[in-house]
Amino acid sequence: MTDIQQPSNDMGDLRVRARGLQKSFGDNHVLRGIDLDVKAGTTSVLIGPSGSGKTTILRSLNVLERPDAGTIRIDHVEVDFGTLPDKGSSARQQMAALRAQSGMVFQAHNLFPHKTVLGNVIEGPVQVQKRPLDEVVDEAKALLDQVGLSDKADQHPFELSGGQQQRVGIARALALKPRVMLFDEPTSALDPELVGEVLSVIKDLAAEGWTTVLVTHEIRFAEHVADQVLFLDEGVVVERGPSSQVIADPREERTRQFLQRILDPA
Amino acid sequence: MRHAVRLLVLAFVGLVVLPVGSASATATHLAQADDRPVVRVGTEGVYPPFSFHDAKSNKLTGFDIEVIKAVAKKAGWRLKFVETQFDAIFAALEAKRIDVIANQVTFNPERDAKYGLGTTYTYSRGVIVVKKGTKGIKTLKDVKGKTAAESTTTSWADVARKAGAKIQAVEGFSQAAALVVQGRADLLINDNIAALDYLNTTGRDDIQIVGNAGDEVSKQVLAFRKGDPRLEESNKALAALKADGTLKKISEKYFKTDVTVENTGKVDVSGGREVRSDTQVVKDAAWPMLKKLLIVTIPLTIVSFAIGLVLAIGAALARISGSRVLSAIARAYISIIRGTPLLLQLFIVFYGLPEIGIDLDPWPSAILALSFNVGGYAAEVVRSAILSVPKGQFEAASTIGMGYWQSLRRIVFPQAARTAVPPLSNTAISLLKDTSLVSVVLLTDMFRQAQLAGANAQIYLPIYVVAGFYYWFVCVGMATFQGRLETRLNRFVAR
Fold this sequence. Notes:
heterodimer, A: alpha/beta, six-stranded mixed β-sheet, B: alpha/beta, MetI-like fold, D-Maltodextrin-Binding Protein, domain 2, 3 domains, seven-stranded mixed β-sheet, 14% strand, disordered N terminus
């Protein structure tokens, strides 16, 4: 772990700190210098039109995308993507260490179809973290209980509803005990009547003190659960602040237009 | 299911590995007790009455076999017989896969210049054989423009060629005789003894000897490489065997006359081999063929498929990888394997590689060629199967902290298997049948065993039907296994 930077400067009560994130896909400049601070135990919500870069930020935090420049620090692990070597074991180790700090929940759940619900949840702790099976199974059962699926442990993903699948996805991410939970539009692929069960799990997590970053189009839910809301457009943060400000009383014209389109499409 | 697989593996180990192990143990044991020099003898094994397998015991025997055994006894050699078709026999001698040919090699000046030819141990005449009722072919003069069925590198083929006949290439005398009977060739020219034996064994009257192919007496000799000191040893041994009457005795056993001296050409082969009914022929052949199926064809298929699958996965990952170099190598490999015949690949491995110092035995040669072949075909199957796994699965594996290999092993391959099993089963079934080509690298598989049995009895249809049944039976087993595997892999998919 000697390759991993141990920053000396104090994070205070911050859990996540990103500075100057840049990312392009070909000619498409998706992130144009993003700064993000997330306090421990709080919920941050990213909103914005499609293509604004919100999902790319989330994926960068989990290093599913590799930013072209900028630094990301989660808890005590910091990576400077501007100076990170293109390849090599040092770069791989640093990225793996940063990735291990966060747990990711995908829009399309991406559960492992060939494993049972319990198998999905214990896969990471047992295979990657090499923790003892008994201990992990006990924890996994508690997590499934927490997301209301204790009776589904031995079923396969295809036997579950979309909302249940998404809740398994959440339990799978939680099982690794990440320092921050990342949700990438977790309800966008769900039938409307299944949205509530997933949002209520996320709300419970926030209430329990999990640090979460959430990308969503559920503005009313965001308003209710968020400590901080960031509105993004064209790769920059247009406006940020408490939900009472950004959603209830936006200062920027672009934010206002976006919210109007979402909340009152007719 | 898992138990079934385990049982299968156990059965396989019991059937194949243990006998092989104990066989090699016996061989080492013998080697310790015996320090005579080993001489490898190349022979057809399908050229009765000179070189063939006894119907009852399935042991290699015949006039040439007994002669070379007698020579070895006098010269103090230990013999190892290598059976191959005649057209590969001189190549095998030059590639040092065998040391001497004992298969009625006819003396001629071209061969004399290239090889170390010994003293004559058979005098015979060439005869012309046609289908009964054929008009206008009586002497060599009539052969011009007609089609003669011959092994292309024999001296009989030369005789036919010089007389102006077109040559239809065959793998041995019995195949040639079959073509003439079927009317696919007009005639064949061969040794009078071989022709008489054929008529006698089959009891056929639809084929006949019409006359001598020229007036020359042909002389058959043992062939060594030029400069091999064992040529002199064999000449001395033959002289001694002639002097003590051993050669005469062997000859009279097969021909009721002594063909080891200049003779009239009149031989009687009736005492040689019994005439068997078709049913008896099939009965005698069925077990040796089954044995070869179990100890050669099936193990060869399993081992080659396993190695081939590893190669295929490697090539598929190289194709998918970002590296241009790796991808180009994999592309070239796949393209070359799919663009060339398996038969050619076998020849390159077995007869070509020794020229650059890579000298592999029959088994490793066959496994090498077959597994590289399977690898080339399966690589694209594996590649498309891996690509059929959604990208989200790779990401989910990454996000829980898995590295490249762990993601492949635990997440991607189990899902890719579902897509890959049906086409891979096709590949495996093709491979089983492709093993019928390995006789060219001197490995006696089930099909070669069928050819041996057929050549010995001069009966083909029932034996090939049995061979076909064996292949089909194994293929049905493989298809059943495929079905179960598919059910198992599909159990986690919504229907």
